[in-house]
Amino acid sequence: METDLPLIAGLVIAGFSVPPVLSAISERRPPRSSLVTILIAIGLITYAVMMKPGGYAIDEIPDAFFRVLGRLL
User: Fold this and answer.
1) What is the pTM of this model?
2) Rounded distance, CA 47 to CA 42, Å?
3) d(CA 65, CA 58)
4) Long-range Cβ pairs for the range 14-20 (8 Å, 24+)
5) CA 55 to CA 68: how far, in whole Å?
6) How many beta carbons lie within 10 A of that of residue 55, not counting itself?
7) What is residue 21's DSSP assignment?
8) How far is it, in rounded angstroms, from Cα 15 to Cα 41?
9) Cα separation values, 16 from 3, 35, 47, 59, 66, Å
10) Rounded to an integer, what distance in angstroms lies between the CA atom of residue 40 and that of residue 12?
11) Residues 14 and 6 sit within 8 Å (Cβ to Cβ)
């Protein structure tokens, strides 16, 4: 349960980082800051998967999202 937060934070950060990367690529400029945030997201997701015994299955992600949302609200 304590690995749910890094997993969801990583997925949200990765989701918000994709549009700036695509924008930078389309404008032919290097997406430096966006790539840094994607690396942070990958690190959070990797940490969550490595620390949870057995890892995460794809069908567990929505449950983890709602557990984290429930804890925050």
Assistant:
1) 0.86
2) 8
3) 12
4) 14/38, 14/41, 14/42, 14/45, 17/41
5) 17
6) 11
7) H
8) 9
9) 20, 12, 19, 22, 19
10) 11
11) no
CA dist., res. 39 & res. 10, Å (int): 9
Radius of gyration of the chain (CA): 14
CA–CA distance, 73 with 71 (Å, rounded to integer)? 6
State how far Cα 14 lies from the chain centre.
Answer: 5
pLDDT tens digits for range 1-23: 689 999 999 999 999 999 999 99
Helices (H), the chain: 4-26, 32-51, 61-72
- Summarize pLDDT for 34-53 with one digit per residue, the tens: 889 999 999 999 999 999 98
Closest CA to 66 of 17, 5, 20: 5
